Amino acid sequence: MSSKNKSSLNEFHPVSAPDYIPISQLRELQFARLKAIIDRAYEHVELFHGRMTERGLTPADIKSLDDITKLPFTVKADLRDTYPYGMFASPMREVVRLHASSGTTGKPIVVSYTEADIEVWTKAMMRTFASCGLHKGDIIQNSYGYGLFTGGLGAHYGAEGLGATVIPTSGGNTERQIMVMKDFGVTAICCTPSYFVYIIERAAEMGIDIKDLPIRAGVFGAEPWTDEMRKFIERESGIRAYDIYGLTEIIGPGVGIECSEQSGLHIFEDYFYPEIIDPESSEPLPEGEEGELVLTTLCKMAMPMIRYRTRDITRIITEKCPCGRTIRRIRRISRRSDDMFIIRGVNVFPSQIEEALLSVEGTLPHYQIILTREKGLDNIEVQVEVTPEVFSDKVRALEDFQNKLSQSVHSIIGIRADVQLVEPHTIKRSEGKAKRLIDNRNL
Known about the structure:
The chain is of the alpha/beta class. Helices cover 30% and strands 24% of the residues. The protein contains eleven helices and 21 strands. It has helices at 23-44, 46-54, 76-81, 115-131, 151-162, 174-183, 193-205, 227-237, 350-358, 388-391, 395-413; strands at 95-101, 109-114, 139-142, 165-167, 188-191, 217-220, 240-247, 252-258, 265-267, 272-277, 291-297, 308-314, 316-317, 329-330, 335-336, 341-343, 346-348, 363-374, 377-386, 418-422, 437-439. α6 packs across α7. The radius of gyration is 23 Å and the shape is globular.
């Protein structure tokens, strides 16, 4: 371990006290909060009330934590189908914040927060940073995106709540990020792991060795990453690289985080109750078995999520963590049970790409999405067939058409893709399911 990492890992922050709560007391707290949130959703969320009625259930039928399996699931499509405010349990006069992420039709998934929800989120993020050995006096460079996405503001409030100094750099402008890191004495950074890999490489090109800087920790999330990437980051920068987990639909970042052991992510289960189910049968699985993670928000007032199917595949780690925390851990997320992919921290579905392409006259319904990684940054290329008339047009007209497609894709997924026009019959056909996505990022 680097000498700059030794001093802070064992420091205890009072905000972390719930991480060590006795299990029997934790289960009592979880059940009391579950009952209250079920009552709230049943009374104020029409979709949940209707599904409970269909099952012949009322909140009174939930008599223990084990009875959570009787409750109906919530899925991402529910948020799209009730867009924008149909899942809210609070009137708008009590909502102090709205965030959004992309949906498969281009409409965003809208989530809401009361003042109490913001406080819960802040405390979850404070516990997140404390788990990574950060504390008052640290200087945290927040390079997650600010705006409708939850990453930037979630990390910002948590770091400020901890008493740390926050530098809201947001994403991009890598040379300035490196200047800030060096000149401001940054001790921790929040960003995607792939972006930090690029920062390491670009810094080296500028004659700066990250190992020589005060930075000692990175809180990395918003995209899947491997232990191999962690080893590379820690070897090349001398920092400790921590994996953070969160979902916009649940609250944002701060649902789970690694501790100093870096052996699974502790779920703040006094706020977010975890289950593992079989993704095919939807039946609950015993602890320790791999399946789909399902989360229930126990304290979210504005928009309770009851048994939300994350589509993330993991397992609950049954062994006690040497760090002493009693809240359970999950294995790092390795894959999803649907076809969504994550690039530059943004969730993207092939159907979004298809919608963007086919909304422009002259394209054919044959396309392929190719993901690559260059200098630590993810790139997305979209190859699309166009009609013979378009392809045989003049070069300037082709360039204009290409730009039109690029703008269409950007307007729906929120990031820029390299759109390449190809002749008819260029893309391989399939007699079964079409292979839309080629992910070469780990080659």
